[in-house]
Structure formats: structure tokens, C-alpha cells
Design a protein that fits this description.
Low-confidence stretches: none
Oligomer: single chain
Largest sheet: 8 strands, mixed
Strand content: 15-25%
Number of strands: 15
Distance between the termini: 69 Å
Shape: globular
Helix content: 40-55%
Structural class: alpha/beta
Number of helices: 17
Length: 416
């Protein structure tokens, strides 16, 4: 069977895509250090990696590094609105098989996943678990060859754990999302900054003095709430978990149910990974002019069917802004079609943050090649997690304190 080479919008866009990638690369010292260290030995020579990631400049740096370390790389975009067509063109020029176009339909999205899987991978790098699910559901014969892979999102890890619980998962997957170097920085600082960057550039609205409702107080929600508060907003947190709700309260935020928060908010940001977090009963209580955004992986947290059934008209009024004119006269604004707002309406996480996350992806992929484990969901080995942090500090010229022999012994001993 002849494998598809690529499916992108326009290969002539490559020069501007390359400029974006080169800009990102200079701010990714950890990935650069790893590439420089590993390039002579070509540890991925002859290996095939299929990936499903947000195809933008920072991701391109990871894919290019995988290619330079010897791998054959087939990449599908993980979100129709986060794909950057010029970056895809630049990657094709680098010899990477790319299957994605901005604004692709759901049918096109699935076909692009099939094209990436057609390369018969040994390793999968996933964002949201869609590629892993497709392999299990449509190409189960590939599972025997797949050594394993890694998943970088909360939603994807949740899905993988559900597959493992049902004893469906056919190979080991590493929860990169749960590594300290990922969630403490990517989820908190990356999401916090990039969500508000996307909202502000899309709406051009002031945040200070507004009421912001954050649904979900995991690490991503913490970041979104912290940045909103720092810009002068009054923050309300909606949570289902008692410990997280209590933490939000002690962090200085008001905590209430969505029904209580609905009449109060000016901005609503969902960050839960769940479905129908803002639904019809809440929409009936929203103020006129409210702005809704989602920072969870799938576009299901804000119920678009419930928005549509209450509307007399639906219109795009600015790039990335859909106005729902309710039959009762209120106007409600949804950003980025309810998709992941920081990537669909912005450039995603800051470059330096993704440097850490993609370095973790690279090290985990190499670990998969040299480790044999039963199918299941595993934590990233602690030594890899610490290596990423140490390399980042090294790139900044920051030295760590070292234990003396006496201190090391004291920490191991139970005696005073």
C-alpha cells in the first residue's frame, strides 16, 4: 500500500511557517540541549512515531527534533482551529508527514488521524487520546507493534485510565500530563497566561473590574483564576470537588454553584474536562453581553445545542466571536466555537513553558523504546521529570543547593 505523504492546505506557505518555528526554537533551551546531546547517536533511527498534537510552531520544534534524531514522523493535528497551515507546510519541507488543515471538518479530522496511523508506528504521542482510541477501534492489528506512548492532557489521561480499567488498553501509555514538570508549569502558568492572552486579543475587552467565573479548580483552573485576579477581576470558582473548592476559598476566591454564579459573571471560562458544565438552566440566568470561553480539551463543556435552541440568530461578529441573539433579547458571546480558546483563538502556551513539556515528551518517548511494560497507564519516571527541571535551571544559570554527606545520612536515618 502506498502511504499518503501529506495533506496540508498550501505548501507555498512554508517560508512564513519556518520563520515561526525559528522564533520559537530560540526560546526552547531544554529541547535544544537534549537535541545537541542526543543527535550524534541518533537514538530514533529507523523508528516510526505517529503523533496527534496541536500543529503550531512550538510543537513543530518537537517534531523537527524527533526527525533529526532519526525518526520517521507522521503527525495529525489535534484540533481544527489550532492547526497553523504555514507551520504544517514548513514541517512537510523538513520531511515530516503532516495531515491537518485549519478549519477541517470532523470527517477530515478523522481521516487525518487514519493517515498518521497508517505509518504503522512503534510509539504514539497523543493529545486527548484520539489517536490511541482510533488505533484500538479501527486498526487493532497495529497494537502488537506499538511499544507504547505518552499523553499530555488531563482529558487524555482520563480516557486512558478508563480504557485500562476496562482492560481494553493494549500497550503502555505514560501520563506526561501528571509529571511535575508538566502540570506545575504547563497547566498552571501556561494555561493561565495563554487563556487570557487569547480572550483579550479576541475580544479587546477590559478584565479589571469584571466578574470572572472559572469552572474547575484543577491546575489549569488555578492558573486561569490567578491571572484573572492579578488583572483586577473579581473571581468566582465553581467546583464539584470539596478539597479543590476549599482550596479556592482559601486562595481568596468566592466559591459557589454554577446556578448561583450564572447571574453574576461577565466572563465564564470552563476548565473541567467534563460535559455540559454551562447548560440551558444556567444560560437562562446569564446577563446580557456575557462572554463564554472554554479551556478544556473538547468543545462540549459549554452546551452549544442549548445556546442554539434559545437563539433567534447566530452570527460571527468578530474573528473567533460568535454572537447568540437570544429570543428574549439578550446577547451571549461564545469564543472560538467553544473549542480550546488558548489555541483556537491564540498561539497557545508561552514558548518557554512548552519547552519543558516537549522535553518531557521526548525523554518519555525514548524511555518507551528501552522499557518493556505491561499495558496500562504509568507515571513518567521521577528521574526524567527531575532531569527536565534541572536542565531548565541550568539553561538559566541557576545552581541548586547540594546536600552534604551529613545531610544525606540524616535524611536516611530514623535516629535523632
Amino acid at each position: 500500500m502506498t502511504l499518503p505523504e501529506y495533506n496540508i492546505a498550501d505548501r507555498n506557505l512554508a517560508p512564513q511557517g519556518k520563520a515561526k518555528i525559528d522564533w520559537a526554537w530560540q526560546y526552547m533551551p531544554v529541547l535544544r540541549m537534549l537535541e545537541e546531546r542526543l543527535a550524534p547517536e541518533k537514538p530514533l533511527e529507523g523508528k516510526v512515531l505517529s503523533v496527534c498534537l496541536h500543529l503550531e510552531a512550538k510543537t513543530a520544534c518537537l517534531l523537527r527534533t524527533l526527525k533529526r534524531l532519526g525518526a520517521t514522523v507522521a503527525a495529525a493535528g489535534s484540533n481544527p482551529l489550532s492547526t497553523q497551515d504555514d507551520v504544517c507546510a514548513a514541517l512537510v519541507d523538513e520531511g515530516i508527514h503532516v495531515f491537518s488543515t485549519r478549519g477541517m471538518t470532523s470527517e477530515m479530522y478523522m481521516q487525518n488521524l487514519r493517515s498518521a496511523a497508517a505509518y504503522d508506528p512503534e510509539i504514539i504521542i497523543d493529545d486527548g487520546c484520539d489517536l490511541v482510541c482510533l488505533v484500538h477501534e479501527e486498526r487493532p492489528e497495529l497494537c502488537a507493534k506499538i511499544r507504547g506512548g505518552c499523553e499530555e492532557t488531563t482529558t487524555g489521561v482520563k480516557r486512558l485510565k478508563a480504557m485500562a480499567e476496562e482492560k481494553i488498553l493494549a500497550f503502555p501509555m505514560y501520563a506526561v500530563n501528571d509529571a511535575y514538570s508538566k502540570y506545575l508549569f504547563d497547566n498552571r502558568y501556561g494555561t493561565g497566561q495563554s487563556v487570557w492572552d487569547a480572550i483579550m486579543r479576541t475580544t479587546n475587552c477590559l478584565v479589571a473590574g469584571k466578574s470572572v467565573v472559572v469552572a474547575g479548580y484543577g491546575w489549569c483552573g488555578r492558573g486561569v483564576a490567578s491571572r484573572a485576579s492579578g488583572m483586577g477581576a473579581s473571581v468566582i470558582v465553581v467546583e464539584a470537588d470539596p478539597h479543590r473548592a476549599l482550596e479556592a476559598l482559601m486562595d481568596g476566591y468566592r466559591v459557589m454553584s454554577m446556578a448561583e454564579a450564572a447571574p453574576l459573571g461577565d466572563f465564564f471560562i470552563t476548565v473541567t474536562g467534563n460535559v455540559s458544565v454551562i447548560r440551558g438552566e444556567h444560560m437562562d440566568l446569564l446577563k446580557d453581553g456575557v462572554i463564554l470561553a472554554n479551556a478544556g480539551h473538547f468543545d462540549v463543556e459549554i452546551s452549544k445545542p442549548h445556546l442554539e435552541e434559545r437563539s433567534s440568530s447566530v452570527e460571527t461578529v468578530r474573528p473567533g466571536v460568535t454572537r447568540y441573539a437570544f429570543k428574549d433579547g439578550r446577547k451571549i458571546y461564545l469564543l472560538a466555537e467553544g473549542r480550546l480558546v488558548n489555541l483556537a483563538a491564540g498561539d497557545g502556551h508561552p514558548i518557554e513553558i512548552m519547552d519543558l513539556s516537549f522535553a518531557m515528551q521526548l525523554l518519555t518517548a525514548l524511555h518507551v523504546l528501552h522499557t518493556s511494560r505491561e499495558p496500562g497507564v504509568y507515571n513518567v519516571p521521577e528521574e526524567l521529570d527531575k532531569e527536565v527541571g534541572a536542565l531548565k535551571l541550568e539553561s538559566l544559570g541557576i545552581a541548586l543547593e547540594k546536600f552534604t554527606p551529613e545531610q544525606e545520612q540524616y535524611m536516611k536515618d530514623w535516629r535523632e
